[in-house]
Amino acid sequence: MKPVLSNQQHQTASSLVGFSTFEISVPSLPPGIVINDPANVEHVLKNNDIFIKGEFFRIRSWDLFGNGIINADGDLWKIQRKAGLRFFSNANLRNFIDNVVPPILLDTEEFLDSAVRKGRVIDLQIVLLDLTTRLMGNMAYDMDMPASLPFSKSFDFASGATGERFQNPFWKLKEFILGAPLRRAVFDIKKFGNSIVSAAIQKRKSDHGSSKTDIQRNSDPLQNNLINSLLDHINDHQVVADAAMNYLSAGTDTTAQSLTWTFYLLMRHPDAREKVLSELRSTFTEANHVLPLSFDTVQPSHLPYIAAVFNESLRFYPPVPVELKESTAETTFPDGTWLPKGSVVMWATWAMGRSKNTWGDDADKFRPERWLIAGDEGEPLVLKTMSAFAFPVFNGGPRACLGKRMAELLAVHVIASLIWKYDFAEVFDKEAILGETPKERRSQNSLTLPMEGGLPCYVRRKDSGAGESS
């Protein structure tokens, strides 16, 4: 049974204009609709019992995500979210920014310094992925996980292959014939997830005979990591392994990709880059050439322009460009659209971020200032809060992203640190070298939004003159 669309033209899912609702007419998808109106998105995100991941999504993503939180519904989702809530506590976030980030970020800077000395081109996307993977590994699993691990390549490959399943109605036939590389990648991913759980269980056993009590462990941010929280809440170790890999993907790939697009936009908009430096100079007037970055000083409210740059980058390049849900009951949307049980509903965060209805006539322009409100005379700028349903980058409602605050704090920290110390310049293609306008970089096929071909660039170390170029 097809959805009945009130006062709407029946168009294909590719016709994303304004706040209209469209019937899906795509061979690989079941009957459903594409929504663009924030009010309709709010209806979906607030009704977690009506709109679930569903079998259409779960069947295609099962190999990669298993019973992890990305795939889960109902009680299985609730218990994993409860474990995540404990991990993303304020105490853990403070420990993350003040103790975990600085030494690993220093390793990143040493790598960049080496590239400067040798005059090497770097792939900034790989550099940032290595940074976020090591950070999440240390904080969540008490393990050092460089992105060079075979697991990372396997996950990247499997994510792309899984994304293709949503586009190809004959994916099962294709993988029956050509699916060996994907099966090997999934095997590597599962093996790595199980190794995380095994290592954590072994450590818990060794700690059991020590003087640490459960109360002491729960009050210690270094011990109250994600894997311990998952093991405390979930008895099935395979589910724990699936959940661990889901959280690892959400905490590394999406953050690294978002930072990659942010630095790309700053390279393409030197005026915004100069405003970042200006904010740092005016905020840290006593810095003595070293920024005193900490949990307190990287709050978005403390460095609002840098936070606005990150938000504007997310508006253009959301890490999850398309979302899909399945209805468990018939429902009527705020615009009058009726949807029967078992249908799917999609919204493109990527398209919503470019909607002139929401963002104005300059929606196609990179303008961080749209996120800022001028204070009274002499007062600092204030970061504007946007509805999670008009700007659903971090989802909203009951399934709002648990790692939102961690991602924002880390982004401000990394942007401030690297822009203060380094100049980055893109390695352009032949057209740009010949004087033509450089092509806009594209994303590769994936469930998330990695930059196709990475972000090759030149890097130069600034002198110690408070962010001034040498």
UniProtKB/TrEMBL annotation:
Its cofactor is heme. The keyword Transferase does not apply. Keywords: Heme, Iron, Metal-binding, Monooxygenase, Oxidoreductase. One of its GO terms (biological process) is lipid metabolic process. The keyword Metal-binding applies. SUPFAM superfamilies: Cytochrome P450. GO terms for molecular function: heme binding; iron ion binding; monooxygenase activity; oxidoreductase activity, acting on paired donors, with incorporation or reduction of molecular oxygen. PROSITE patterns: CYTOCHROME_P450. Heme binds at residue 401. It comes from the Eukaryota. Residues 460-470 have a biased composition (Basic and acidic residues). InterPro entries: Cyt_P450, Cyt_P450_CS, Cyt_P450_E_grp-I, Cyt_P450_sf. Residues 442-470 are annotated as: Disordered. PANTHER family: CYTOCHROME P450. Belongs to the cytochrome P450 family. This is Cytochrome P450.
